[in-house]
Design brief:
Layout: E1 24-26, H1 35-64, H2 79-162, H3 169-179, H4 188-198, H5 200-207, H6 212-218, H7 228-239, E2 250-261, H8 267-272, E3 284-289, E4 296-301, H9 318-325, H10 331-343, E5 350-356, H11 358-369, E6 373-380, E7 394-400, E8 418-423, H12 442-454, H13 458-471, E9 476-485
Parallel strand pairs: 4-5, 5-6, 6-7, 7-8
Antiparallel strand pairs: 1-8, 2-9, 3-4, 3-9
Helix pairs in contact: 1-2, 2-5, 9-11, 10-11
């Protein structure tokens, strides 16, 4: 997959500025254009090349005339006149198609430079603001203690006088969110959250009085030694003495019997086979294609099923979420590695990794570990921005612009071979009020996957073609696996 960045912008007209079917595809390089526009540029380049080929053919036709007539003596029936007219027409086709392609690339490069500059400046601003908060935060906190105390007392007395319950604040917040469903699906929120998450380590550096140039050099904008990973590790260090976010041993077992399966042909089928995040259900689906000794595999990983910070029997829990971001051997990661070995995946076998949410983060980490031969990876709504995929690996990360979960990965590494596909799900559609974070729902990502299959974007087509090459067309078998945590010590 080539290092080209493509991005689609909404058509004016709806809330949020456009259609919820617009795809944004970004990756290495500096081009930014809609997936359709990028396909048009490729078509124009192909037309330009074809025009050049026809000009060469016409030149060979001209040479076949053993007794050419000089141009001043041409008549309407002369071969030279016909060849000359054809040359002019084809040359104009090549010139115009090349000019249009150049114009598209020029505009795309300009937008790309502006977008990259805005991203860099936003990250730099977040670094400085985080560091500044860390430096002055303790002093502001001490100064605010009297005001906060007076405010708390006043709020308590006021609630008694008005008859409202002191604990009604969470209910009021829930009602406000129900009345303002766009609050958590506004694309500005994930963008700001991505910068905020990446700035936590800078705030910690400010608290520790580490000089700002040193903090900047070590952080996400520099060497990457500090960042989202170290911030998550800090959260674990604070929570585990309290008995929270603790990791335990994990065992893995097969759920049900193996069943026949056919190879997936595109993104829609990949997304459709990701296990749903249900308590007590299978979290890993493994498909095998080909005979023993030359098998190819697809591994599907589901999202978080348990949000309790305490130790439960579920490895796909909040503890694994934080531990995975911290790269500290999350229970879900260990369960996936064990399930793949139990299913028969050998280190040299080609593997396609697919995952949603936490499953996408774990899929990226399995690919980055190098313990298995991951050849393709597709993730949906995963906070995996900080995970560096191996060079040359065809990777597609799907992130909704109105989904805050991928932003929890911060401003991380972006490999040249990784394509990032974005869509604003609720750009023009009403936001559901009966469920939280609707843009993060697996059903929403499955719809985006269907749009990706219909997209003319060349690299998305290339991924689907590679999927068919790796898996072949013969039926295979599917097995399902469930990991269970050992009781906490």
């Amino acid at each position: 997959m080539t290092g080209v960045e493509a991005a689609g912008r909404s058509v004016p007209g709806g809330e949020g500025g456009g259609s919820s079917t617009d795809l944004i595809v970004s990756g290495g390089g500096s081009l930014v254009a809609t997936d359709v526009l990028l396909a048009e540029a490729v078509t124009l380049r192909a037309l330009q090349a074809a025009a050049g080929g026809w000009l060469e053919r016409l030149e060979r036709i001209r040479l076949l005339d053993s007794e050419p007539v000089p141009a001043p003596q041409w008549s309407g029936s002369d071969v030279g006149m016909s060849v000359f007219a054809a040359e002019r027409a084809i040359h104009e086709v090549g010139r115009r198609s090349g000019a249009l392609a150049d114009a598209l690339v020029c505009a795309a490069e300009g937008y790309g430079r502006a977008e990259r500059s805005a991203e860099f400046l936003g990250g730099l601003g977040g670094v400085w603001l985080g560091y500044l908060v860390g430096r002055v935060g303790p002093f502001l906190a001490l100064a605010a203690v009297p005001a906060l105390t007076a405010g708390a007392v006043g709020w308590f007395l006021g609630s008694l006088l008005t008859g409202s319950r002191p604990g009604a604040a969470p209910e009021a917040a829930a009602r406000w969110l129900a009345d303002n469903p766009r609050a958590l699906t506004n694309p500005i929120l994930p963008a700001a959250l991505r910068v905020l998450v990446s700035s936590v380590d800078d705030a910690a550096a400010g608290v520790s009085a580490l000089p700002f140039p040193v903090s900047f050099a070590l952080g996400d904008q520099g060497a990457g030694l500090l960042g989202v990973t170290t911030s998550a590790a800090g959260v674990l260090a604070l929570a585990r003495p309290l008995g929270l976010l603790r990791e335990t041993g994990v065992t893995v077992g097969r759920v049900g019997r193996p069943a026949p399966a056919r190879p997936p042909t595109g993104f829609a089928e990949l997304a459709a086979r990701i296990p749903a995040a249900t308590a007590g259900g299978a979290q890993v689906r493994v498909e095998r294609y080909g005979p023993a000794g030359s098998a190819a595999w697809v591994v599907y990983l589901g999202g978080t099923a348990e949000w309790s910070p305490g130790v439960t029997a579920e490895p796909w829990d909040l503890s694994s979420n934080v531990a995975a971001v911290a790269e500290e051997g999350a229970g879900s990661y260990r369960a996936v590695m064990a399930a793949m070995r139990e299913a028969g995946v050998r280190p040299a076998d080609p593997v396609v990794q697919v995952g949603h949410s936490q499953g996408g983060l774990v899929a990226s980490q399995v690919a980055a570990s190098g313990e298995f031969n991951t050849v393709l990876i597709a993730t949906f709504g995963a906070p995996n921005g900080q995970v560096e995929v191996p060079a040359g690996l065809a990777a597609v990360a799907v992130e909704h612009a109105d989904d805050i979960v991928p932003a929890l990965g911060g401003i991380g590494a972006r490999a040249e071979d990784r394509l990032i596909v974005r869509r604003e799900v609720f750009a023009t559609e009403p936001v559901p009020v009966d469920r939280g974070l609707p843009a993060h729902a697996l059903t929403a990502y499955r719809e985006t996957a269907r749009l990706m299959d219909a997209s003319p974007e060349p690299r998305l087509r290339e991924f689907r073609s590679a999927l068919g090459t790796v898996l072949g067309g013969e039926p295979g078998t599917v097995s399902r696996w469930r990991g269970v945590r050992a009781p906490g010590d």
